[in-house]
Specification:
By secondary structure, this protein is mainly α. The chain has one domain. Helix 1 packs across helix 3 and helix 2 runs antiparallel to helix 3.
Amino acid sequence: MTQTATTTSGETERPTREAMLRGARGRCPACGEGRLFSSYLKVADHCPNCNEALHHQRADDGPAYLTILLVSHLGAPLLLACYMAWRPSAMTMILTFGIGAVILSLLLLPRIKGGMVGLQWARRMHGFGSPPEMASS
């Protein structure tokens, strides 16, 4: 059960953890139902379920940097352990770890980006907390 609290400005507090988990699953951080991405890494302008505006997100290079950090920190010790245990040829190491790094990166990147969009939504960053824009006359 989600507890709701209000901030000093009278706005309802958004649960950060829940929003990040929803985003990591590729779902709208507001409702958890609509798809967050319209393609592999393209964030939809609006949630198809609750119509929450998602075009405010500014994940930029953050997900790529975190993906590289995670993949390299997982791969380096594994590479060393495999080399010490089996002494495979250099070509075997290059192929297996190269393919493994590419696959792991492709799997992690949209999840990390979704989590960052969820964090931005929950913390009302980059326009996620501002009132709807007025139509110009």
